[in-house]
Amino acid sequence: MTADEKAAPPRNAAMVFIFITVLLDMLSLGVIIPVWPRLVANFFPGDSARSAEVFGLIGTGWAAMQFFFSPVQGALSDRFGRRPVILLSNLGEGIDYFVMAWAPSLAWLALGRLISGATAASISTAYAYIADVTPAGKRAGRYGLLGAAFGVGFVLGPAVGGLLGEIGPRVPFWFAGALSLANFAYGFFVLPESLAQNRRAAFSWRRANPVASLILLRSHPELSNLAIVYFLGQLAHVVLPSTFVLYAAYRYGWTAGDTGLGWRHGRQADCRCGPHCIRCS
Question: How much is the pTM?
Answer without folding.
Answer: 0.77
